[in-house]
Amino acid sequence: MDAAHVDNDLVNVLFTEEQILERIGELAQEIETDYDGKELLIVGILRGAVMVMADMARAFTRHVEMDWMAVSSYGSGTKSSGVVRILKDLDTDISGRHVVIVDEIIDTGLTLSWLSSNLSSRNPASVQICTLLRKPEALQMPVDVKYVGWDIPNEFVVGYGLDYRERYRNLRDIGTLAPHVYS
Ligand code: 5GP
Ligand code: MG
Ligand code: MG
After folding, report:
1. Which of 107, 144, 151, 163 is catalytic?
2. What confidence tens digit (pLDDT) does each residue in 58-100 have?
3. Which CATH class is domain 3-182?
4. What is the torsion angle, in degrees rounded to the nearest 10, for the CA atoms of residue 48, residue 52, residue 58 and residue 61?
5. What residues pack around ion ligand 2 (CB closer than 5 A)?
6. Contacts (Cβ under 8 Å, ≥6 apart) of 104
């Protein structure tokens, strides 16, 4: 048991560590098949995608390059500010490269639709998106997500890289927080 469970902060576990690793393994296999014979760069979106990137990269049985971007869209709360800003850009020149953006969750779709067109403007061979979680709200933005772990209800979730005010990222499971945490 981890501390947050003991504190009863997590009221409902949606996905356990075991389920997450299994699903990521499936996604990695799908991507391996699709990019067979091609060089692949996966781009993780800091900070939430750190866990997904680490587990996905190790699920591959092929060579893969990893790079990172940091953008801000949410601030420290639970609502999108509607503004996307690059805090850390890629170190890699992606022209002519096959790129898969890896993120942990797509909510409004604002961040990923903006990122996807930003990367597409750098003349890559291709850009696709992989997200572990997707909320129904994401359908409101025109963002083409090729690889999705699970569609989830419209609730705020934490764990496995997902934070609430920079806490809970280090939980192994994904779940929702008890109301008392927010008050
Ligand atoms: P979007 O731009 O798609 O609305 O949201 C993108 C970012 O918002 C995600 O990468 C994540 O950092 C944050 N976010 C969206 N929904 C959730 C959620 O349910 N829990 C947490 N912890 N972060 C979320
Ligand atoms: Mg994210
Ligand atoms: Mg956050």
Report:
1. 107
2. 999 999 999 999 998 755 555 555 678 899 999 999 999 999 9
3. alpha beta
4. -130
5. 45, 48, 103
6. 45, 48, 49, 51, 52, 131, 132, 133, 160, 161, 162
